[in-house]
Amino acid sequence: MNTQLNLLPVNEWGINNTDRPLLISGPCSAETEEQVLATAHALKNQNISVFRAGIWKPRTRPNTFEGVGSEGLKWLTKVKQETGLKVATEVANAKHAYEALKHNVDVLWIGARTTVNPFAVQEIADALQGVDIPVLVKNPINPDLELWIGALERINKAGITKLGALHRGFSSYGDSAFRNAPNWQIPIELKRRFPELLIINDPSHIGGKRNLIQGISQKAMDLDFDGLMIEVHPNPDEAWSDAKQQITPSQLEEVIKSLKIRSKGDSKQEQSKLCGLRKKIDYFDQELIEILEARMKVAGEIGEFKRNNDMIVLQNSRWGEVIEQSIALGQTKGLSREFVSKIFKAIHQESINNQTEIINQVLS
Ligand code: PEP
Ligand code: MN
Questions:
Q1: CB 241 within 8 Å of CB 54
Q2: pLDDT tens per residue, range 79-107
Q3: CA of 205 relative to ligand 1 center, distance in Å
Q4: 109-159, pLDDT tens digit by residue?
Q5: Which residue has the least CA distance to atom 4 on ligand 1?
């Protein structure tokens, strides 16, 4: 299914500093009035577009800090008055949305645990019907692009055109360098389908550790993300939630200063050079397809031979040889073991599928 989103460009949203990277920053959670105001004052001169603070916190386990609730909205109002910053908070149901609107929160975001639930998203969309407010939708915790798009569509259908996506990574089981795997292909595909959609990366929740923030942020910039949402706390080690991934306001300044914002390659000269190289790529892509077609034909002939001689599809020793031979050759050409192995496994799987079909064909 392919739908279009009705989107207003971010420079018409009424927030400042919409150049790349558009920066949203503030604590994971509002903890005390002093902590919220201290963070906001420290960020005031750092060119951030929006100050964030979670008021209602969707925590994985009970008996952890679940947010200060509506009380914290008054602190956000104070942030606006004292610093002039726009403020954002997370809403997970209609009540949160009404409360946030009542307190003039400028930007809302929908958290990853809410995006997974179409009922909750629809409830928020209904609460926002006809309201003019920017809404950012985090990716669902599972790597499901359609579910992410579905949530964006629900909010958009309620008339919200100041709409953006927040990429915070995806849950997986077991140890990994990341708290939430980035699966960059998913936001890249989202951008391909909706080129006008604002996409902001959240390196704090992807990395889960403060020393990963710089690298993830740089990658997001190199992949043409519009902005970053980074969690900042005056005393990160003492934070009541997500302590390991929060950084101080001055560390944020360092991260942003160290970012390399590379050119998008829009100039005529750059475009013509790229165009020439891309023609070469197109040529090789065609060759690849033709070689794959020829290879599949031979695999089909093997399938017919196996059928006619009543042989099984998979001969494991042969498959072991194919993959090891290819990996070894690949390594002499600068292609990594992981890459060659992934490609050959996919080709082999397709051959097996075709051969299984041929072997089971009922011949008339
Ligand atoms: C957050 O931004 O603090 C948060 C709860 O994030 P997520 O929904 O990405 O887990
Ligand atoms: Mn957090």
A1: yes
A2: 999 999 999 999 999 999 999 999 999 99
A3: 7
A4: 999 999 999 999 999 999 999 999 999 999 999 999 999 999 999 999 999
A5: 111
Contact 178, 208 (CB under 8 A): yes
Nearest alpha carbon, ligand 1 atom 8: 111
Q: Check whether 230 has a pLDDT greater than 70.
A: yes
24, 28, 183: residue to mutate for ligand 1 pocket, most atoms within 8 A of CB: 28
Domains in the chain with CATH codes: 10-258 (3.20.20.70), 268-360 (1.20.59.10)
Burial class (CB in 10 A: 0-12, 13-18, 19+), 137: buried
User: How many angstroms separate the alpha carbon of residue 55 from the centre of ligand 2?
Assistant: 11
Helix (H, G, I), strand (E, B) or coil at 90: strand
- For residue 9, is the peptide bond before it cis, meaning its omega torsion is within 30 degrees of 0? no
- What's the CA gap between 187 and 185, in Å, rounded? 6
